[in-house]
Amino acid sequence: MTLVKFAIPKGSLEEDTFKVLERAWTNVKRKSRAYRVSLDDPKISVKLIRPQEIPTLVFDGLYDVGITGNDWVKETRADVELLLDLEIGRIKLVVAIPDSYGFKSFDQMIDSYGKKKKILRISSEYLTTSSKFVKELKSYKKFYGSNPPLIVTPWSRTGKNKNVQIHLSFGATEAKPPDDVDAIIDVTETGSTMVENNLKITDIVMESSAYLIANKRSLKDKTKREKIYDIVTLLRGAVEGRKYLHIYVNVMERNLNKLLKELPSLKRPTISPLSQKGWYGVNTVILKSEFYKMVPELRKIAQGLVVHEPRQILSLEEIKRDEER
Fold first, then answer.
1. Are 56 and 40 in contact (CB under 8 A)?
2. pLDDT tens digits, residue range 21-74?
3. Is the bond preceding 98 in cis, omega lying within 30 degrees of 0?
């Protein structure tokens, strides 16, 4: 019996999402080209959907939870609950213009076009976000006041200001300047695609990553809420597990206190006497970023180091606090 409907992203976020799912659940199955995904929990129904659609589908209650970029939550203005930053799909939404243009900022570009009464054309998938960003620029207010830019799609034209136009892009946005548009507002991870297409970034509109989101009505349903927080617990454990290492090391009794002083840990280490008198085993979880600092000291005072990367680290106390809110 399905209890919770879960939408996950198809496309650029798909691979990283499945890596997180496979850490969180022991059995994740999907058939090639199929849109249905099964977890080892029959009460969760999972389907692959384009990330642009997920915020609205979750808001409308067709899905109880979903994974999508926070950029699309803002773009669609979906009133959903942001439950967990999955720390994948990190991108920046930026303004980019041709290298040959001498403008240092988009505000400067609008000022120049406004003085010349020249039409400024922008291409973007993010119509709402782009319009909001442009309207808040100083030069835009100076020339056009509060009139919204003209938003152009194949099926509609909205907005009063024809001198600044935002055209809906269906992809390959970076290929459009300078022939089709003067500037783009598009996502980038490293900026390399912009450079390859002779574009320079002038402004950062927003930064985003993938989030687990939930329908607010589903969270008020006691039974669904319990299952949703099971999902939060497992996914948070998978996210945290990527940051830590589980280590086990043998140390002589005379070096034990020295080791404990040097050893960072998630909580207090577990110390166990070994079968050989005068030796102890120390078992703990540490941040990956701390491990390289420890190796020189461990080489001097310890033996038999074993290192594991945990699938998950479940902070159950934190989940209980979330559920009580």
1. no
2. 999 998 999 887 889 999 999 999 999 999 999 999 999 999 999 999 999 999
3. no
CA angle in degrees (0–180, nearest 5) for 121-101-138: 60
**Residue 188's beta-bridge partner residues?**
92
Helix ranges, the chain (H): 14-24, 54-59, 70-76, 106-115, 127-135, 138-144, 192-196, 216-220, 222-241, 253-262, 288-301, 316-324
CATH number at residue 18: 3.40.190.10
Structural domain boundaries, residue 250: 244-308
Q: Which amino acid is at 98?
A: P
What distance, in Å, lies between the first and last C-alpha atoms of the chain?
A: 28
Q: What is the C-alpha separation between 55 and 67, in angstroms, rounded? A: 9
Tokens of 114: 């406004």
Best CA proximity match to 152, nearest among 143, 144, 162: 162
Say how far apart CA 273 and CA 257 lie, in whole Å. Answer: 14
Report the domain count for the chain: 3
**How many Cβ atoms sit within 10 Å of the Cβ of residue 54?**
28
pTM of the entire predicted model: 0.88
